Amino acid sequence: MPQRRPRILIWNEFRHERMNPAVAALYPQGIHEALAGPLRAAGLGVATATLDDPGHGLAEDRLDGIDTLVWWGHKAHAEVPDAVADRVRKRVTEHGMGFVPLHSSHFSKPFLALMGTGCFLKYRIAGEKERLWVVDPGHPVAAGIADCIELDHEEMYGEPFDVPPPDDLVFLSWFQGGEVFRSGCGWRRGLGRVFYFRPGHETYPTYHHPQIQRVILNAVRWAARPEGMEAPVRGRRETPLEPLD
User: Fold this and answer.
1) What 8-state DSSP symbol labels residue 116?
2) Which one, 65, 92, 210, 214, has the greatest CB density within 10 A?
3) Region of residue 163 (left: phi > 0; alpha: psi -120 to 50; beta: else)
4) DSSP state at residue 239
5) Using alpha carbons only, how large is the chain's radius of gyration in Å?
6) Tens of pLDDT along 129-183?
7) Angle at 133 between CA 127 and CA 138, to 5 degrees
8) Sheet arrangement for strand 180-189
9) Is 103 helix (H, G, I), strand (E, B) or coil?
10) Is 41 in a helix, a strand, or coil?
């Protein structure tokens, strides 16, 4: 029987592209469509949603059957209602949906809820060189990636990164200014998986880089809810499996 292809939803606040001509020039159809194209080319089922869609693009029926949610947010985190963020959290922890937050989505409400920490870090926008070193070459998210990915221009994120210790550390970034950062981290949360991937400042063409596209493809596959997953039975159990007398 052929394996069902993962169903991916890419969510983007879609504000920078409509307000900043430099961002619009890099991503004329929005960051969400730049992310969607390589995933569609790889044969995944991909839909997109934005903050200004009905239900903020994340209504219950929109999330039904989604295997991985990819999230890009930056300037409009506060506009995501708490109820919507909690809906995403529950889909991960209780239904096994994968969650792949990108770049400034470390401050998104769903990621904050899943981490339980402030997710603070250092940053600097100076267009400096970045090398993303693969520190776990056997991890599925690193498949097809050489020793490192070099980006000519990116925003610097620096340690300490206020998150729980990751279950998987796949990429460690070095920046031209000297800082380092845990740029590719995986966690298990309830039934689901989370993979945070740092690159992607909106004024740089990062999401057009083939190796960055490959990492995101690997990440959505790794995080995806396994086919046939069913939520475990919870709560009071009246009937024992074995006799009690």
Assistant:
1) -
2) 92
3) beta
4) S
5) 18
6) 999 999 999 999 999 999 999 999 999 999 999 999 999 999 999 999 999 999 9
7) 150
8) 45-50, 7-12, 68-72, 98-102, 192-197, 180-189, 168-175, 122-134, 148-158
9) helix
10) helix
